[in-house]
């Protein structure tokens, strides 16, 4: 399976980690999404920004193990970028998958790119297309740039797929979204 053009796919890894965390923390605090306890989310973010990675990791691991999709996303980002932990794309993909399955659009978008390139997971355009679709549908209105990036990524991957693969990807997206709806953040 040929990889998509490296310079064409975009995702939130291109943004600075504190900026992504700040956006996600604001969403969490504003909507109380993901079951975040504001003190824990704020404490983890503050620790991360102060480069107290051990504290940030401990806070987010505790929340992530309690199925908090925002904390799972944060851990995925840390493993992807190797900030505060040893970089490990397999662990990044695992944490993104946990968050994506709970409906976290940021994790869904990043996981889609990992599937497109086979980074930390086996390359799979069908899964990449499905996760990109769900990410685009899940971003809040103020994240229009991320929604547009997810749709662009989906279209780039989709252009490399056969008609039966596209049908399978659309069905998978629906199935994954239904599962996420029954498994709240």
Please sum up the structure shown.
With 185 residues, this protein is an all-alpha fold.
What is the secondary structure topology, with strand pairs?
Elements: H1 17-31, H2 38-49, H3 53-65, H4 69-81, H5 89-101, H6 105-117, H7 125-138, H8 144-158, H9 163-181
Helix pairs in contact: 1-2, 1-4, 2-3, 3-4, 4-5, 5-6, 6-7, 6-8, 7-8, 7-9
What's the architecture in CATH terms? Alpha Horseshoe
What's the SSE pattern? HHHHHHHHH
Note the gap between the termini: 33 Å
Q: Which runs of at least 5 residues are low in confidence (pLDDT < 50)?
A: 13-36
* Overall spatial form: globular
Give me the count of strands. Answer: 0
Count of separate DSSP helical elements: 9
CATH homologous superfamily grouping: Tetratricopeptide repeat domain
Oligomer: single chain
Mean pLDDT: 84
Give the total of domains: 1
Strand content: under 5%
Structural class, from helix and strand content? mainly alpha
Q: What is the radius of gyration computed over CA atoms, rounded to a whole number of angstroms?
A: 16 Å
Helix content: 55-70%
- Biggest sheet, open or closed, and with what strands and sense? none
CATH class: Mainly Alpha
Features:
globular; Serine Threonine Protein Phosphatase 5, Tetratricopeptide repeat; 185 residues; mainly alpha
Can you tell me about this structure?
The protein has helices at 17-31, 38-49, 53-65, 69-81, 89-101, 105-117, 125-138, 144-158, 163-181. It is mainly α and 185 residues long. It has a single domain (15-181), classed as Tetratricopeptide repeat domain (Serine Threonine Protein Phosphatase 5, Tetratricopeptide repeat, Alpha Horseshoe).
